[in-house]
Amino acid sequence: MKTGDNVVAVRLNNRWNPELAPRAGEHVFSGGIYRDVRLVVTGPLHVTLYGTFVTTPQLSAESGMVNVKTEIRNDDAAAKACGLQTDILDPDGKTVASISSLQSVPAGTTVTFDQTTAPIANRSSGIRPSVLSTRR
To answer: Cα(20)–Cα(11) distance, rounded to whole angstroms?
Structure first.
């Protein structure tokens, strides 16, 4: 987008996409725009839409490990070095784990960063492990 007048063209596509809701056929596709529309502007090197996947491969009442897979897309004409830092936050917003990765992303490709924390101790008694942390 540039300062001044801009033209935005919208193309509709009703093809099924497993990454977009509804996923189980609980909605009839009859054409047109039937949801809010957003314009997402990114730089050439960016996290893809729906490109962050967070799991807890090991989880107990005492501790847990967090695995984060992040898809990075490079739409530039040249390869780019990409640094990715992921912080895991407790319910109070305090960083309890931090993971940094550096990887080259070739031009016109998508690369998945795969990051896993060391075990993170559960310092909050009485809280379910599923609500112990947030990713930033």
So the answer is: 17
Mean pLDDT rounded to a whole number for the chain: 83
- CA 114 – CA 111 distance, rounded (Å): 10
Q: How far apart are CA 113 and CA 45, in angstroms?
A: 13
Quickly count: other Cβ atoms within 10 Å of residue 54's Cβ: 15
Q: What are the DSSP E strand ranges found in 3-133? A: 45-59, 63-74, 80-89, 95-105, 109-116, 120-121
Using DSSP, state whether 131 is helix, strand or coil. helix
* Closest among 51, 46, 43, 40 to 105, alpha carbons compared: 46
Contacts of 36 (CB under 8 A, 6+ apart): none
Per residue in 105-117, pLDDT (tens digit) is 999 999 999 999 9
